[in-house]
From TrEMBL:
<keyword id="KW-0496">Mitochondrion</keyword>
<keyword id="KW-0812">Transmembrane</keyword>
<dbReference type="Pfam" id="PF07798">
    <property type="entry name" value="CCDC90-like"/>
</dbReference>
<keyword id="KW-1133">Transmembrane helix</keyword>
<comment type="similarity">
    <text>Belongs to the CCDC90 family.</text>
</comment>
<protein>
    <submittedName>
        <fullName>CCDC90B protein</fullName>
    </submittedName>
</protein>
<feature type="coiled-coil region">
    <location>
        <begin position="146"/>
        <end position="173"/>
    </location>
</feature>
<keyword id="KW-0472">Membrane</keyword>
<keyword id="KW-0175">Coiled coil</keyword>
<dbReference type="GO" id="GO:0031966">
    <property type="term" value="C:mitochondrial membrane"/>
</dbReference>
<dbReference type="InterPro" id="IPR024461">
    <property type="entry name" value="CCDC90-like"/>
</dbReference>
Amino acid sequence: MAQPMIMRLARHKGSSLRNFSGLLQIITHPGSACSEGHTTGRALSTAAIGGGHQCYHKRDVDLTPKVDRHLLFDTHTLVTRLETNGFTPEQAECVTLCLIEIMNSTLEKNQKELVSKLQQEIMMQQLMAHMSSIRKDMVILEKSEFSMLRNENDKLKGQVEQLKKTLKDDISKLKSGIALDINLEKSQALRKRNQTWRKELL
């Protein structure tokens, strides 16, 4: 069941793949190419494919890796395994190119939606810097508020002391006035009593 589906996919998305051997060498995992025999095998009879099957149209695939893009699989091994399991060279090459396109689109989407470790570290550093700045602002605000409260408290203390002094002076003046009034009343009462006593003697 799998082979007919792949064949239909190959008919719709195939290509002449004349330069497929060069493409394989570009995206092949480093170290997989060892000898001339392997390099010849990687060509996969590309000339015969290009000349005998005109139904496969060329499909441009951007295989230029970006700075942080990596294709971590051996395309030559994949093509060889597909051929071993019954795929024709054209089908194996087409499936490989489809996988490359899928991986490239997936990597591009991930690069747009996800952040790298470096970006995450930069964001963490920025966040820590903001937190440190906020902490410093809070300390400064706390100190300034404490200073304002202390100044206000000192001001209130001064006002209370001034009020106490004023009240003490008022009380002292009131006492002096009351004592003076009492003395005047006493002197008047004594004078009246003396006058009354003199009248009685006469």
